[in-house]
Amino acid sequence: MSASDSGRVAVVTGGASGIGLATARRLNEDGHTVVIIDRSEQAHEVAAELSLTRPTKAFVGDLGSAADIERLTAEVSATFGGADILVNNAGIHPKRPDGSHYPIPEISLEQWNLVMAINVTAPFLLSQWAMEYMKERKWGRIVNLSSRAGRMYSDVSGAQYAASKAAIIGFTRNLAGECGPYNVTANTVAPGRIKTPLSDVSGLGSSQNLHEVFASKVPLRRVGNASELGSVISFLTSEDASFVTGAVIDVNGGIFG
Ligand SMILES: NC(=O)c1ccc[n+]([C@@H]2O[C@H](COP(=O)([O-])OP(=O)(O)OC[C@H]3O[C@@H](n4cnc5c(N)ncnc54)[C@H](O)[C@@H]3O)[C@@H](O)[C@H]2O)c1
User: Which InterPro entries does UniProt cross-reference here (predicted)?
Assistant: First the structure.
């Protein structure tokens, strides 16, 4: 890591849990001022823990609400001026009470719209906010979270989730196209199954340990850890990734079918 790689303002959505938490920790270690946006009050505890190393701030709000996004971005701008790094990580994956996905006939319009609002519209609005500041400063990094489910058919994902995760890839490609001339990069990360609260259905009455079932199909014979996403996102937000933009990085242990 070069010296210019530290000391940026890095906004991580969904930083209170799972991949976002691991990313917030890693970007904190990289020397950045991390700003966590999450709907969970847990974000304040994470910020307090990371602040022991370097300044970290949490803002609590619902990324499914455009009004909240406007308030949150205004607060971040007022406190830090803007974001040098934006990681659009917060996402939801609705599941039935037994942990299985909703088949298409069972997806309500309300649920479809909620998934699109949090998984696609929020990254769009946050990127729209962040890119102007980044373009002015001729430096910026945006990383959006897709999923293996956005890359190929997955019988555990659900169509609303898969559609949102495919949409974010198309959005990010255009973001990279429009931001490139300003030295601002935008990339997508597509995780396979990663051990986090989102992928844990053990408390939902599922009779199988889905992690174990899934791991047997993965070339590396295991599911991933959140820190293994944090390290990839650290690279994509660093100076070392200065010529990487518009890419989709699969972090899935080698499962492509
Ligand atoms: N875990 C996996 O196996 C996996 C696989 C592929 C993709 N992903 C993607 O990675 C990202 C992170 O997933 P995770 O597994 O860490 O999930 P997680 O549930 O552990 O964490 C998600 C975080 O986002 C926050 N969040 C959710 N909705 C929000 C909203 N409306 N407003 C503000 N904050 C909100 C939650 O409070 C939580 O802190 C998601 O976009 C997910 O789709 C995860």
Answer: NAD(P)-bd_dom_sf, SDR, SDR_fam
Ligand 1 center to 136 CA (angstroms): 30
Q: Which of 13, 9, 10, 29 is nearest to 21 (CA)?
A: 13
> For residue 44, what are the CA distances in angstroms to 25, 52, 60, 64, 126?
14, 13, 8, 20, 21
Domain ranges of the chain: 3-248
Is 161 designated active site? yes
Region of 33 on the Ramachandran plot (φ > 0 left; ψ -120 to 50 alpha; else beta)? beta
pLDDT category of residue 6 using cuts at 50, 70 and 90: confident
The amino acid that residue 193 corresponds to is R
Give residue 207's pLDDT band: very low, low, confident or very high (50, 70, 90): very low
Atom index in ligand 1 nearest the CA of residue 119 equals 41
Q: Give the position of tokens 């906010």.
A: 129
What CATH code is assigned to 3-248? 3.40.50.720
For residue 62, give the DSSP letter: -
- Model confidence pLDDT, tens digit, residues 71-102: 999 999 999 999 999 999 999 999 999 989 99
Please list every protein residue whose CB sits less than 6 Å from any atom of ligand 1: 14, 16-20, 38-40, 62-64, 89-93, 118, 145, 147, 191, 193-194, 196-199
| pLDDT tens digit sequence for 132-178 | 999 999 999 999 999 999 999 998 899 999 999 999 999 999 999 99
Q: Which of 102, 133, 153, 161 is catalytic?
A: 161
